[in-house]
Amino acid sequence: MPFSLENLIQAVINGNAVQVREEVKKALAAGVDPARIISDGFVAAMDVVGERFERNEIYVTDLIITARAMHTGLKELKPFMLAGQVQPVGRAIIGTVQGDIHDIGKNLLGIMLEASGFEVIDLGVNVAPTTFVEAVIKYHPDVLCLSALLSSTRGAMGETIAALQEAGWRSKVKVVVGGTPLNETIAAKMGADGYAPDATAAVQLIKDLIGAGQKRQAVLAPATLDLFFGEGSLEDLQLAFTRMTGLHLVMVDAAGNPLTPLGGFLECSRHCHLLQGNPAKDVDVTTLAGNFKEAFIYRCHAGLVEISYPLAGEDGTVGAILCGHCLLEGDPAPAQLQAAVPVLSIKDLEAVCGLLSFVSGQIMQLNAVLLVNKELEEQRASFIHFLKRQHQLEQALKDAELKVLQAQVNPHFLFNSLNTIARLALFEGAATTEKMVRALARLMRYSLYQVKETVTLAEEIAAVRDYLFIQETRFPDRLQSQVLVEEDVLEARVPCMVLQPLVENAVIHGLEPKEEGGRITVSGRRVGDQVHIEIKDDGIGIPPEVQKAIFDLQVRGGSKGQVSGLGIVNVYRRLQHQFGSNCALDVTSTPGKGTCIQLTFPYTKE
């Protein structure tokens, strides 16, 4: 069956990866240009998919399926793209910012950018600002795309943009941000160039920002002419050229502004009185036969011959060398005029054009070298600045570590004092006082020294027991507790201090306000490769408006004012940081009857 562009488009829309691969193979076998497969096939299909997504006719899962099918086809085209048969319209660096490990939106954007002809460098998830900066310096992208799902990581986007500014690269790359916790106002405040709510909108935004497919504007390095001709020798060269050929030359930029002294180029005005009624101006020079090295030969308004040779490189024209004025052999002109200006044969004209071609080529080669050197020097200066900034941060970190060590002197003194008090209480027969003091000392040491580490669930439960013992000692008639955690989950690793804050919330917000007190139960068991923890109390419960505020913080990442359940959200985010999307925290509460918090996370010993 022959190749059909419509079949390819429909296969992508349907998310049929096998058919997409086969249609691409058919297209290549039929000699279809790979660039056309991308533009008229993949891009056209994703335009349809994007429109359906915006009209809520399909959902994110459908978008992912179609994107993966298209990516299968792109793999078939990859060898042609790498071989240069498909020229990228731009280069993009994408990544999920530090503290966030969600990648669905990022991956979808990467696929759609590749389908649109972009070269994509994917840095992955949980990417530090310094890593983004290093990648920008290394790859010189047109656009940097920052993704986030958690509102708690929104600040990392601003830090990344600030790091680019510190390194001196902010003005050299467009920054586009996207994700649930953002909008256009927030994006503008953090200094981004644009915000996109989804991948389909991001692709068009990026194209608009960078002008995809347009060539970079060509420039002439300021030092090019000085270095080429030598300092102070440009006028000498112009005079030498005039002595040798009788012609004057001047160099202009792309707008026609002189880059060199005009010299005698405008001296033809002295001959204006000789040009009146000059029949030579009617002699056509556009049909001259000869090797003029791509020079443009034309007559001025009065009929004298001028030569323009372009200063052009791969990125376009930066200016021109203008040369004149003269007559050509055979031009009908007054004898006074032929005596006043050079009269060149076709061979002479070819020789002049050859000389201009050589000079132009040398200037543009030198210009290319100078621009590269200038860019390298800017990169070097930026990188040195970046390294200095890194050194400052490292020094600040060392200072902070020193302050932490110094601050530990007081806790050590407190721990030692508490242990001394506990021993004295034991010697004096105050067993309950001794147990409470030791429990307090253990709890303080645990919370202060291990907060950045993962611990075993057994260690976390021990801290919960110490906390509950202290509270039961304080409120012997109002608080009862029970810890029922099965032994086969005690070796599981969890972030430090994820259970104690939840238990403390239950005691302070659930049971203390209840006049008769109540009971709290902590239970834990293993279900397959998951650990299930439940913290249940029969306290006053959580008001509906507070439950909604907690939900907004936990899921949507936005809330107004303070929330008494902030500890719940903090625990959830730390679990996400440790386990990614493979964890859950659920809160159910009935005012007046109590609250139940359930945690689920993978069982791992690492």
Task: Give keywords.
alpha/beta, Rossmann fold, Heat Shock Protein 90, five-stranded parallel beta sheet, five-stranded mixed beta sheet, 17 strands, elongated, Cobalamin-bd_sf, transferase, metal ion binding, phosphorelay sensor kinase activity, two-component regulatory system
Describe this structure in words.
Strand 7 and strand 8 (305-313) form a beta hairpin. The protein starts with a helix and ends with a strand. A 5-stranded parallel sheet has the order 2-1-3-4-5, sandwiched between helices. It has 3 domains: 5-210, Cobalamin-binding domain (Rossmann fold); 225-373, no CATH class; 451-602, Heat Shock Protein 90, CATH 3.30.565. The protein has 606 residues and is an alpha/beta fold. The chain has helices at residues 5-14, 17-29, 34-54, 60-82, 104-115, 129-139, 154-167, 184-189, 199-210, 224-229, 234-245, 272-275, 335-340, 346-407, 409-427, 431-449, 457-474, 500-511, 544-556, 566-579, and strands spanning 90-96, 118-122, 143-147, 174-178, 194-196, 248-253, 296-299, 305-313, 316-328, 343-344, 454-456, 479-485, 493-495, 518-527, 530-537, 584-590, 594-602. 51% of the residues lie in helices and 17% in strands. The radius of gyration is 38 Å and the shape is elongated. Belongs to the methylamine corrinoid protein family. It comes from Moorella mulderi DSM 14980.
